[in-house]
Amino acid sequence: MSLPVPLRLLGRLILALLAVVGLAGLFLALVVLTDGARSGLAAWLTVLAAGVIAALWRGRGRAWPGRLWPLVPVAAAAALTASVCVPTVPTARQYPPDLPFVATERWSLSTGSRVAVYRHPPSAGATRRPRPLVYLHGGPVRSISVLDHRFLRLLADQGYDVYAYEHAGGGRSDLLPMEQYTISRSVRDLAAFVDRLGKGPADVLGFSAGAIVLTRALAAPDTAARVHRAIIAEPGPMDGPTALISGPQGRPSARGLAPAPTGARATRVPRYAVALGLIQLGLLPPDTGLITQAEGVNAFKAADLGSDTASAYCARDAGRIPTEDTAENFSFNAAASLRIQQTIRDSPSIAPGLSRTRTPSMLMIAECSSQIRQWQTGILAAHPAIERTHYMPGVGHRMWNGLDDNNERAAAVITAFLQGGPSPLPNYPTRADISAFLHDRR
């Protein structure tokens, strides 16, 4: 007995949908197998050809136009997957416009990197400090946020001649070939930048990913010689063994509590959702043929960071997280960032080199840090020249965030250390306090 017409139609619809899903899955598998060759067209043409052949085989022996019905899901799958192969942003690098409140210079370093440089000179009337202060921002491989520039201006008001540069491949700095993005290159760029300043050893403030670069620079004698004093603020994992550590973080952050970020997202566009997602999962290499490096940078938006921004603030600040950057200034090279992070995970321990450094240093740890505590205390344990550690109450990973007096408090401990004066906060934790700190400050 044959099925009623409605059931037959439903069955055909289900089979068609399964065919579309199967072809789309085959397309994704081929994208991975071909490394996204030719913007995904190699995978798309292969799936289209396979689908047409299969559809014609299924339609054999049928009368026209029934012979064409098996081609419908093939056409639907082709249309669906074609969106992954078509760029929706420029494929040549589009740099952010220059900021109105600070000049952008571009320096060619001896490493071959060409980086965007910003200078916040000492304010008129402030006591000029004898050494330049170099800022290494977080990310890695993104633009320096407007929020960061405001904080650097505060340090300039204290008499510091502040220089900052965006890591190669980030912000307004030129791109590198993907294989050249390594943590070692970042360290060499720091040394080359200080040399390019031509003012002798500099004081260096490294935040987050910048703190990793600074820590590794201190473990390398040649680079450490270029650093007069070092401030290591909220560091990530310094090497492969440290990256394997899991354990307590700080007190609760605003992740999951703050409103979802608004604005355009690359991950709402099929092409970039697939490309960035497969790169993040490690199924495609950062230099995939699916999207160019420049296209990926052009496409990525601040909202694509998702809850990462909220994780940099304390839970109590979930309802008042500031806007860290403007849409025009924001830029993030996600593929290059992942590549650098992988080179950190692949690197051997730097603890032996760090144990030999004599560069006076200060470590800053946030109360609501989203970083693993052992990433921070591991540096404290290995680095004998850390003179002060400051546990910063009331702030998350983003310690200078423009809320309340957080910027002023961070600037106060930084300037006290650089000037060798008494700090407004206790020296805590010390090396002797590490065990208790890990137990109590969760």
From TrEMBL:
TM annotation in the entry: 12-33, 39-57, 69-89
Gene Ontology terms, MF aspect: hydrolase activity
Family matches, as InterPro entries: AB_hydrolase_1 (IPR000073), AB_hydrolase_fold (IPR029058), Carboxylesterase_BioH (IPR050228)
Taxonomy, superkingdom: Bacteria
Residues annotated as domain AB hydrolase-1: 132-235
Pfam families for this protein: Abhydrolase_1 (PF00561)
UniProt entry keywords in alphabetical sequence: Hydrolase, Membrane, Transmembrane, Transmembrane helix
Name the UniProt record assigns to this protein: Alpha/beta hydrolase
